[in-house]
Every structure is written in C-alpha cells, then in structure tokens.
Amino acid sequence: MPKERRLAAIMFTDIVGYSAMMHKDEKSSLEILNRHRNILEQCTAAHYGKVIHYYGDGSLSIYNSSIEAVTCAIEMQEAYRSDPKVPLRIGIHLGDIVIGDGDVYGNGVNVASRIETLGIPGCILVSKRIQEDFISHPEFYYISMGKFEFKNITNPIEVLAISNEGLAIPDKYKITGKLKEKDGINSLAVLPFADYSQEKDQAWLTEGMTNALTHELRKISSLTVPSSTTLRTYKETDKTS
C-alpha cells in the first residue's frame, strides 16, 4: 500500500496516574478509560479527525486543521470535568506526517508526543506552530510556557497552554517530561549577603534579599538549591565550601 505524506495537526492524550488508579480500583478505572475513548471518538469525528492508535490509557489522533484539533481538545476537557472525571493531559503539534500500513510516522508525531508529557490533568498544550494558526481566532486564549529542548528533537520548541475558562495551566517552573538532560549547572547555593552599610543596621534587608533569591531559584525544577537556613553557617565567615 502506497504511503501518503501530508501536513496534519497531531494530538496525543494520556490519562495521568492511570496505573495507580488500576491498582486501587480496577472497575472504576476501566469506566474512566472507556469514557475517555468514547468522548475522544465522538469529538474527533465531529471535528473531521481520525483516531489512529490507542496506547493503553493514551491515544494518537490526527486532524486536517489546527483550529479543529484545538476546538476538539477544549470540548473533550469540558466533558471530562463531569463525573466520572477523566484526568487527561493533551499535547498538539502541527507537522509533516507519513501515513502507511495503518500507522502514522514522522518528526511531527514525535514532537506532539513529547509536548503531551509536559502536561497536567485538565490541560491542553500546543506547539508554537499550532498557535500561529489561531492568532486571528479571539475565542482561543493561551499562555507561553517557554521553549523546551526535547529528547531526540533537534531544535528547541516553544510550548503554549490553552487558557480558556476551566482548563488547567501547568506551573512553568515545575514542568517535567521527556526533556533533554542538561549538561550545565544542576545545583546552586545562595550565600548570605553581607551588610556593608556604614551603621551595620541593614541585616534585615540582606537577609530578606538572600531569602527572596533562594526562594525564586528553588522554583526551577532542574536546580537543587539549599535552603537559606542551611547556609546561615557561612554568614560573616570566609568559608567558600
């Protein structure tokens, strides 16, 4: 069978924490899984898409339009908020795909699958290429999560969260997923600031600055940052390590 190459909006979904659900309550977990699939198939058909694969508690589907894909995702997340709730995360990317032998291949598929791993229950994450297609559609709201370097993907990709009412938004400082391991700094310590004022009466300010900087740096998930309390022994000393 000849293979077809074309541009498509690619959507990956995944039920967050499904393995733990199955361990706790198999019957309820199967109900959630079936609900996920039923709603996905209904919404996908309504928006001219096609479900290509189910991967256990996840799925891969494709759409002819970025607008249809995002609209479908929003409708799905709205439906999943009613009982039994489905804690689903969704990732969408626009890219070149190859269709053949009942499967879909291509770098676009890999990118969409990586984007989905960054999500949290109830969220929809999209690539910059998807967002560029709905700039002229004011019904869509979005927030940039920043650029990410994914495993086995050459260039960094900007990821945005759809922020329409009711959708979950990940904390950009706590995002995890299938990202490249960075070779740079992975730990950092903020040493106590010294009070060099003439009256030596600004300790409250230097301590506040130390605490504030430490607090902000500890929001970066890839960094290990000791607490300010741990490093107080370095205050007013010549210690370097």
If you had to describe this structure to a student in words, what would you say it looks like?
- With about 240 residues, the chain is α+β, with helices and mostly antiparallel strands.
- It has two domains: about 5-160, Alpha-Beta Plaits, CATH 3.30.70.1230; about 180-240, no CATH class.
- It is about 30% helix and about 25% strand.
- It has helices spanning about 20-25, 25-45, 65-80, 105-115, 130-135, 205-215; strands at about 5-15, 50-55, 60-65, 90-100, 105, 125, 140-150, 155-160.
- Strands 1, 2, 3, 4, 5, 6, 7 and 8 form an eight-stranded mixed β-sheet that branches.
- α1 (about 20-25) packs antiparallel against α2 and α2 packs antiparallel against α3.
- The longest helix is centred in the N-terminal third of the chain and has 21 residues, at about 25-45.
- The protein is elongated.
- The N and C termini lie far apart (about 65 Å).
- The model has no long low-confidence stretch (mean pLDDT about 85).
Here the CATH topology of the largest domain equals Alpha-Beta Plaits
Evaluate the radius of gyration. Answer: 23 Å
What is the arithmetic mean of pLDDT? 87
Question: How many structural domains?
Answer: 2
Structural class by secondary-structure content: alpha+beta
Tally the beta strands: 8
Name of the CATH architecture of the largest domain: 2-Layer Sandwich
Query: What characterizes the major β-sheet?
Result: 8 strands, mixed
Helix content: 25-40%
Strand content: 15-25%
Question: Count of helical segments?
Answer: 6
**What is the class of the largest domain in the CATH system?**
Alpha Beta
The ordered H/E elements are EHHEEHEEHEHEEH
